[in-house]
Amino acid sequence: MGVWNQVAQYLYLKKKDPDAPKNFSVKFMHGINRISILLFLLAMIILAFKLLRH
Questions:
Q1: pTM for this prediction
Q2: How far is CA 12 from CA 29, 33, 34, 47, 49, in A?
Q3: Is the confidence at residue 43, as pLDDT, over 90?
């Protein structure tokens, strides 16, 4: 599976793979990855806003 497909699944832009393993560890890992991607995007938006503001 490609990186972009996985990111799209984390951000609910693409349906999940039905053959993917379903256990607590994998769900927790995907949750943490989703949070880190969203925080990274938020930080990029804030940095872009600060750069454009000056």
A1: 0.64
A2: 15, 13, 10, 25, 25
A3: yes
